[in-house]
Amino acid sequence: MKGKVVILLVEDEEAHAMLIMRVLEDAQVAKVIHWVADGGEALDYLFRRGEYVDEGKSPRPDLILLDLRLPKIDGLEVLKEIKQSEELRGIPVVILTTSESETDMARAYHQYVNSYLVKPVDFTKFNEMISDLGFYWLVWNRQPGRMKE
Fold first, then answer.
1. Which of 39, 94, 104, 140 could form a disulfide with 78 if both were Cys (CB 3.0 to 4.6 A apart)?
2. What angle do CA 67, 104, 46 make, to 5 degrees?
3. 75, 66 in Cβ contact below 8 A?
4. What region does 138 belong to: left with phi over 0, alpha with psi -120 to 50, or beta?
5. Is residue 19 part of a domain?
6. Measured between alpha carbons, how far is 37 from 134 in angstroms, rounded to an integer?
7. pLDDT tens-place string over residues 46-76
8. Which structural domain, as residue segments, surrounds residue 126?
9. CA-CA distance, 27 to 82, in Å (whole number)?
């Protein structure tokens, strides 16, 4: 894979964020993982506002991992803004949540989420899911602008 592979992780639970980042780093599927803890910060990062005005602090992600239950702006609203933006809508967005609600799933797919994953409670299954997720979206899946070696 050529170039830096960048993930934007939007997760308010620090323990979940640390675990996700560790699994992705161990699997060596991402070169850079940016973590933000709320929906407002995610939108600032993506739209390069506030502390993220400098493109060096906010490189375009190849994948967005998005929790639903976030402070300030919830994940579904963040998803809606991403998919309404011509510049951002092509970035794959994967919901990573504890919610198994059919309503949440339907709302996410109505906003054009690329995938909806429920976080397993089992630690081993959670690790497997995150590793498989990284490989699928960042290694196997083809995206314009990201050439394979």
1. 39
2. 40
3. yes
4. alpha
5. yes
6. 20
7. 999 999 999 988 999 999 999 999 999 999 9
8. 6-140
9. 27
